[in-house]
Amino acid sequence: MIFKAKPYKPIYYGELKPENRHSSEIAWSMQHKFEIVDSQFVSDKKVAVIKPYNFSFFLDKKLKVIGAESFLRE
Hints:
The protein is mostly beta strands. It has one domain (8-71). The chain has strands spanning 8-13, 17-18, 28-42, 45-59, 65-71. Strands 1, 2, 3, 4 and 5 form a five-stranded antiparallel sheet that branches. It is elongated.
């Protein structure tokens, strides 16, 4: 799990966009960008590392999430 017991910082909530996929139940999509603060050991010292994430969420006509995918942030 990405968020479990880690600080979460939302960066951007994209607008709800209509999807035109004829062979799918996907009716809408939305992007979400956020950061998770993780810790790593560097030279035996615990340091905070900010990790950016981008997700696209796919929703049906009733706005129920039916899928998501992540991609690298540029």
